Backbone:
């Protein structure tokens, strides 16, 4: 069956697909994280509030920044159109 | 009544945490759609009508033309189609989940098929009508007979479309309770699918012979398995409901559950005539289905739009058919339609637009004189 289009610009139909897929992934991660934190707290491995008060050292901070930049690059790269 | 064999096979689809979170996400999005988005859309509809000096559209097409260019209606349509599609076909959809356990589930279904064979009559040579084979009804990929595990996919899918506060089988008990009562000897579930609609009649009429007919073997195998798990004696057979091998004047009650709207009008007529033939004189034909959407043209906009967006190919032609007149032409008398309470309340006033999106549940009750 032919796929149905709903928006004036069919590109929006596709972007909506990406958006919903991403939103679902975010929800799945949140769900898993929440379960994980609760289990860790209940087992005593994680102190309540420990995540909020956590401060990375300078070396760890640099690692996290590099990871952040790589993440942003993966997402933003298609905008440049270098793949065409 | 002879005792049936209690099955140890489970044939339960196991969904992991990720799949459950994903389905929960889709359900949340769907609820937002049925409440908030639907209400916003109705507000927009009313304001567009006001802009036309209260000159409300009279047909579905006119209504869609009036509102179709709005971003809101476009998002509404996209979400209606794709939230349902993702439920089945998404990366953590039901099809993928069932596929992961394919071998084990198939083995369990086959074991059940070989047990108590007098209660399951399959016909491998049955010819599928085109209207059935060609449509992925409600976007179930391949339809309810296209894959050997289609019954399990359907069963899992039903759980995610039931209102929060109810169990997915609740509706079937409500139908059984709403049917006319009598000293029934034989009861038939026409288009019984996976059998959930058949079971309540088993407990309501312990002395009666209970039958279920469907064209889908995968669904019947599951119905048979579940019946045996629960120790319920039910006779299932794979037949085309337009022409069965039951003798004339055979059943006291024949019932259908969301089946009429899956049939093109010509098949609907043939099926209804077949039900009339195999019913005893004085027997009842009861149908739970969607008809006469409330809320005038806005109701039509929602119902026919849903039909198109959700691959309910014959839902509109059914809604536009005067089914009571068709039943009377075939010979039923009386034949009537009444609002049905699916657990969220029956349609209170056919003129008023419901507060949330809803199916227009109706109960058809006809009698063979």
Residues:
């Amino acid at each position: 069956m032919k796929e149905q289009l709903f928006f004036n610009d069919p590109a929006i139909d596709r972007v909506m697909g990406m958006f919903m897929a991403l939103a679902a992934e975010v929800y799945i991660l949140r769900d898993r994280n929440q379960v994980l934190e609760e289990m860790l707290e209940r087992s005593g491995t994680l102190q309540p509030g420990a995540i909020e008060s956590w401060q990375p050292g300078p070396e760890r901070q640099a690692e996290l920044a590099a990871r952040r930049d790589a993440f942003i690059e993966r997402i933003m790269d298609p905008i440049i159109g270098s793949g065409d | 009544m002879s005792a049936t064999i209690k099955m140890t096979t489970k044939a339960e689809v196991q969904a992991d945490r990720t799949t459950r979170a994903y389905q929960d996400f889709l359900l949340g999005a769907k609820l937002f759609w049925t409440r908030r988005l639907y209400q916003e859309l109705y507000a927009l509809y009313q304001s567009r009508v006001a802009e036309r000096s209260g000159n409300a559209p009279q047909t579905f097409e006119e209504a869609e033309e009036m509102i179709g260019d709005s971003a809101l209606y476009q998002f509404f349509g996209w979400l209606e189609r794709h939230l349902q599609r993702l439920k089945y076909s998404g990366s953590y959809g039901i099809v993928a989940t069932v596929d992961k356990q394919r071998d084990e589930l198939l083995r369990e279904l086959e074991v059940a098929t070989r047990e108590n064979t007098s209660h399951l009559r399959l016909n491998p040579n049955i010819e599928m009508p085109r209207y059935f084979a060609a449509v992925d009804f409600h976007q179930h990929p391949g339809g309810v007979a296209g894959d050997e595990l289609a019954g399990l996919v359907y069963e899992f899918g039903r759980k995610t479309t039931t209102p929060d506060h109810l169990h997915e089988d609740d509706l079937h008990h409500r139908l059984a309770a709403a049917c006319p009562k009598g000293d029934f000897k034989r009861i038939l579930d026409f288009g019984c699918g996976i059998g959930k609609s058949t079971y309540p009649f088993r407990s309501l009429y312990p002395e009666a012979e209970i039958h279920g007919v469907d064209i889908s073997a995968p669904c019947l195998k599951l119905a048979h398995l579940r019946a045996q798990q629960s120790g319920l004696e039910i006779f299932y057979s794979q037949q085309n409901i337009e022409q069965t091998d039951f003798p004339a004047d055979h059943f006291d009650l024949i019932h259908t559950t969301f089946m009429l709207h899956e049939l093109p009008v010509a098949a609907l007529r043939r099926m209804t005539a077949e039900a009339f033939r195999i019913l005893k004189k004085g027997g009842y034909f009861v149908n739970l289905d969607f008809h006469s959407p409330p809320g005038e043209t806005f109701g039509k906009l929602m119902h026919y739009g849903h039909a198109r967006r959700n691959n309910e190919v014959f839902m509109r032609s059914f809604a536009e058919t005067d089914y009571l007149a068709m039943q009377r032409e075939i010979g039923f008398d009386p034949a009537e339609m009444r609002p049905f309470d699916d657990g969220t309340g029956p349609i209170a006033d056919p003129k008023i637009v419901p507060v949330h999106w809803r199916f227009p549940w109706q109960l058809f009750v006809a009698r063979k004189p």
User: Anything to note?
Assistant: The first helix of chain A runs from residue 10 to 43. The mean pLDDT of chain A is 88.
